[in-house]
Amino acid sequence: MEFFKFTLTLTAIAFLSATLSSSHPGFNFGWGSPGGNGGFSFGLYPEFYQSSCPQADEIVISVLERAIANEPRMAASLLRLHFHDCFAQGCDASVLLDDSATIVSEKKSLPNRNSIRGFEVIDEIKAKLEEACPNTVSCADILALAARSSTVLSGGPNWELPLGRRDSKTASISASNNNIPPPNSTVQNLLTFFKRQGLNEVDLVALSGGHTIGVARCATFKQRLYNQNGNNQPDQTLEKAYYYGLKSVCPRTGGDNNISPLDFASPARFDNTYFKLLLWGKGLLTSDEVLFTGSVGTTMELVKKYAEDEGLFFDQFAKSMVKMGGISPLTGFEGEVRKNCRRLN
Ligand code: HEM
Ligand SMILES: *[C@@H]1O[C@H](CO)[C@@H](O)[C@H](O)[C@H]1NC(C)=O
């Protein structure tokens, strides 16, 4: 129903644009799961702050409600921050560290610079949590909690979130550069990047559904409009009217910071329209559209299923978010709980 107004919104683009394997070494869930240090390691579990900071999630939600009401895109920015944290060195809040004598910040990496945002909202959450429960809630858990509630507040699914991550004392700009997939990736590239993190093709398609909210800069999709294969031709998989709309936002030269919604039909609503748009040749990034047009049959089938069944997408998104949030966490006595997410204690 809501469907038919999508084609009408084409001119509005220009306007808008001013199941976990416990054997996997990267994951660490469950209290007392076997680890490398003498056969015992701490795990992540939902009740981690139940006695030490029972109000933690409420505090996160109260800050987010205001921030997202003020700027709906903030939900998208915070969801992406957790992804970029987890893919570089594990979910350890390394992405939040600023440059210092000992730290080369990940904020300057190719995928991050002029791009990731939301740090002030994380700072505000952290300040409120330090007031309520000093030295208790890690910045890495704040990122995971913020990603979950950003999803929920945008209309998406909720899930039980394992907690107990600790914060790194290091950052890795090289991991950020090398482990976060670029937007012009083929589907085979994407699968390789995700497998490196212990994530499979189901996780890839479901998590790409995070692009149901938020925007991307012209620089990240320009190649598709003007020179997709080195022959000065646009990407043939782009639907024509959508292509013309994008060109008006993203000229051949300049305009690199002009933005366009990843899901132009409902850019602030967490729903399954992202997948419907892919079926119609209206995915914004190469990495989006190839999930449907690329040569891997399973990803195409999954795109179709999620386009048909929003409930199925929501269930899998929740599962895959828990899985992504379990990438190589620091636990127990590893790392620290930072007092200020931007620097080491
Ligand atoms: C599959 C590989 C992925 C690629 C190649 C990719 C690439 C990108 C790019 C290029 C942008 C725009 C950045 C800019 O304009 O500077 C973006 C934005 C975004 N990404 Fe991804 N992404 C991927 C996976 C994910 C995942 C797994 C999530 C979360 C579950 C996610 C969530 C987002 C969100 C919410 C935005 C919008 C952010 C905002 O508006 O501030 N992405 N992504
Ligand atoms: C992707 O973009 C980068 C940076 O612009 C470029 O060097 C690379 O050749 C592109 N890859 C493909 C497959 O087009």
UniProtKB/TrEMBL annotation:
Ca(2+) 2 binds at T212, D263, D271. Substrate binds at P181. Its cofactor is heme b; Ca(2+). PROSITE patterns: PEROXIDASE_1 (PS00435), PEROXIDASE_2 (PS00436), PEROXIDASE_4 (PS50873). InterPro entries: Haem_peroxidase (IPR002016), Haem_peroxidase_sf (IPR010255), Peroxidase_pln (IPR000823), Peroxidases_AS (IPR019794), Peroxidases_heam-ligand_BS (IPR019793), Secretory_peroxidase (IPR033905). One of its GO terms (cellular component) is extracellular region. The keyword RNA-binding does not apply. It is found in: Secreted. One of its GO terms (molecular function) is heme binding. It is an enzyme of class 1 (oxidoreductase). Keywords: Calcium, Disulfide bond, Glycoprotein, Heme, Hydrogen peroxide, Iron, Metal-binding, Oxidoreductase, Peroxidase, Secreted, Signal. It comes from the Eukaryota. Its EC number is 1.11.1.7. Residues 43-345 form the Plant heme peroxidase family profile domain. Residues 1-23 form the signal peptide. One of its GO terms (biological process) is hydrogen peroxide catabolic process. The record marks R80 as: Transition state stabilizer. Ca(2+) 1 binds at D85, G90, D92, S94, E106. The active site is at H84. Its main location: secreted. Removal of H(2)O(2), oxidation of toxic reductants, biosynthesis and degradation of lignin, suberization, auxin catabolism, response to environmental stresses such as wounding, pathogen attack and oxidative stress. These functions might be dependent on each isozyme/isoform in each plant tissue. Belongs to the peroxidase family. Classical plant (class III) peroxidase subfamily. Belongs to the peroxidase family. Ascorbate peroxidase subfamily. This is Peroxidase. It comes from Carpinus fangiana.
